[in-house]
Design brief:
- By secondary structure, the chain is of the alpha/beta class.
- It is built from 12 helices and 10 strands.
- The chain has a 7-stranded parallel sheet. The protein has a 3-stranded antiparallel sheet with strand order 6-10-9, with helices on one face.
- The protein is globular, with a radius of gyration of 19 Å.
- Helix content is 40%, strand content 13%.
- The longest helix is centred in the first third of the chain and has 17 residues.
- It has 2 domains: 217 residues, TIM Barrel, CATH 3.20.20; 106 residues, no CATH class.
Length: 334
């Protein structure tokens, strides 16, 4: 939930008895330290910090230039200049020594990985700091790699999940396993706990995951509409509109497959081949600039409005109140 998760949300979730999480994939080590400190000022409970472990970008100037040219008419429509070039706006944890140092220094209870794994040396350093390690898998092979690398739990991310797919290789075939099937496959195959994620929005969904053998459930979209979320007005409005019933997996916004509410950007992406889109996060540089230009003219349809297929069940509550509701619903479903 990098971009919408906040220290206030993580602290409220933690204080309500769940594991609060911070997505720091969109910030640097200094930003991560500031966010972790803000959580700790509001809560003494455990915290998960999630980092992105994507392959560092191999720049392709021709591809980036062609992508800018494709988006140029849209920038023109909003009276804005497209960027002259695109940058790698987010640094991968696999090569970010400053972020590693920040996590070892601040020692969150949990660090979770998305898009793959860092090196064995980085994982060892985190373990030596007493940090619990969790990784996201979208199929059995990824889960086995995570287990072999020494994570203490695996998140089973189903295809219905909102936001970025946790696939290790975005260009490899994707079996698109749903949360329930993937959870059951991993529970039977792994010796570490499995955490179900994707499409789970209420206590009944959590109960279903637990009955399949999951040790826990991870919810993201359920918290996007919370008061503490950084979701902007257009995003929140879309969550309360008919668009909430239509989500699309697209690369066009960021360069990696991600599930988004159907909007103008996903419509654009539907007509573009994956090979014509720059890699993550190069494409995201263009996407964020286009969204800023559109928002300046009152158009919210180019935002990264990440949401899973359970989005119609989203509730606009304080995060602590949502955790309390989930607990009550889970109790009633058992």
């Amino acid at each position: 939930m990098a971009g919408v998760s906040t220290p206030a949300m993580a602290a409220a979730v933690a204080n309500a008895g769940a594991l609060g999480s911070l997505g720091v994939g969109g910030t640097d080590a200094g930003g991560a330290r500031t966010m972790i400190a803000a959580v700790r000022a509001a809560s003494r409970r455990s915290l998960n910090v999630n980092v992105f472990c994507h392959r560092p970008v191999r720049p392709d100037a021709a591809l980036a230039s062609a992508w800018i040219d494709r988006l140029r008419p849209l920038f023109d429509n909003f009276g804005a200049e497209p960027p002259a070039a695109l940058a790698e706006i987010y640094r991968s944890f696999v090569e970010d020594d400053d972020m590693l140092a920040a996590l070892i220094e601040t020692k969150p209870k949990v660090v979770s990985f998305h898009f793959g794994l860092p090196s064995a040396q980085r994982m060892a350093a985190l373990r030596e700091a007493g940090i619990v390690l969790i990784g996201t898998a979208t199929n059995l092979r990824e889960a086995q790699l995570l287990e072999a690398a020494g994570v203490q739990a695996v998140v089973a991310q189903g295809y219905e999940a909102g936001g970025h797919r946790g696939v290790f290789d975005p260009d490899a075939p994707d079996d698109q396993l749903g949360t329930l099937a993937l959870t059951r496959v991993l529970v039977r195959a792994l010796d570490v706990p499995v955490i179900a994620a994707g499409g789970i929005m209420d206590g009944a969904g959590i109960a279903a995951a637990l009955r399949l053998g999951a040790a826990a459930a991870q919810l993201g979209t359920a918290f996007v509409g919370c008061h503490e979320s950084l979701a902007d007005a257009g995003y929140r409005q879309a969550l309360g509109s008919p668009a909430v019933h239509h989500t699309v997996m697209t690369r066009a916004i960021s360069g990696r497959p991600a599930r988004c509410l159907a909007n103008r950007f996903t419509t654009l992406g539907a007509g573009v081949s994956d090979r014509d889109i720059p890699a993550y996060p190069i494409a995201y540089d263009a996407g964020k600039r286009l969204n800023a230009a559109a928002k300046a003219r009152g158009e919210a349809g180019y935002g990264a409005q990440w949401a899973g297929q359970g989005a119609p069940l989203c509730r606009a509550l304080p995060a602590g109140a949502l955790v309390a509701a989930l607990r009550a619903e889970l109790k009633a479903s058992r």
